[in-house]
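Recap from last week: sequence in, structure out.
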Amino acid sequence: MKPNQVWTFALIAITAVWGWSFVAKQQSLHSNSASALNAFIFIIAAVALLPWAIKHLKSLSRRDWRAGVFAGLMLFIAFAFQTSGLAHTTPSNAGFITGLSVVLTPCFLFLIGAERPKAKQVVGASTALCGLGFLSLQDYAIHYGDLLILGCAVFFAIHIIVLSKIKFGSTSLVLAFIQLLTVGVLSLVWSLAAGEFSLPQDRSSLLTVLIIAVVGTAVAYLVQTRAQMVLPAQKVALLLVCEPIFSGYFGYLLAGDRFTSMNILGACLIVLGMIVSELRLPGLRRKVGVVAAD
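Predicted structure tokens:
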């Protein structure tokens, strides 16, 4: 099997783990708080990356540490919204709405004056936001849990922008370590301050935390980083669209999620919007008023 095929399958496997993790996290919230769950997951993930990062830490400048911690802060807020929201919505909805970060990123770049969106991004964002309405709105009101997950998607998009703008003087793996450690420490502080901290109550909960931390976070980062070195960026972006699809599959299979025709339409529109935003579609160029040159 060729290297590009190996890393393609590896990345798909990682998106499957991410999709499953929405169900696993929701079930873990029955016995753990969102803050404690995030603390365990991200501290363990940071420890798992430490052997590869430790030799570079002494050479980091204060600016590097500030950049890494600030990016970690954005990631902490995103996961705080996501894990809290999972207690109030379905794993399927959480997966699809989290995917909106793909289409929100160019919108935010436009709002801060960094760059103007391309036609495909305008079409993709409009399609995905319509999908959000069909997926989440009932009686003209959005569910509380879905609103929290939408906050997660917003901060994931901000996190993407922060990573594209900061200057960091070491490897991307070291940057990932600092971010994961920041999320873990801030989650631990949140948990202790709120009086919510507790250890996993049973072996099943502990195993779930370990799988999400090691496979779904530390190993997933390493696989994604390596895949981006081997595969075209556009292919990586499209493969990541599998995450919400897997969240819907595992939500249906393991969590009893059931979909109305409107829910299915909404989910499909969100995925379609994500795909349109990432595909090269020359026919759409300059057919929308707000378009930037490629």
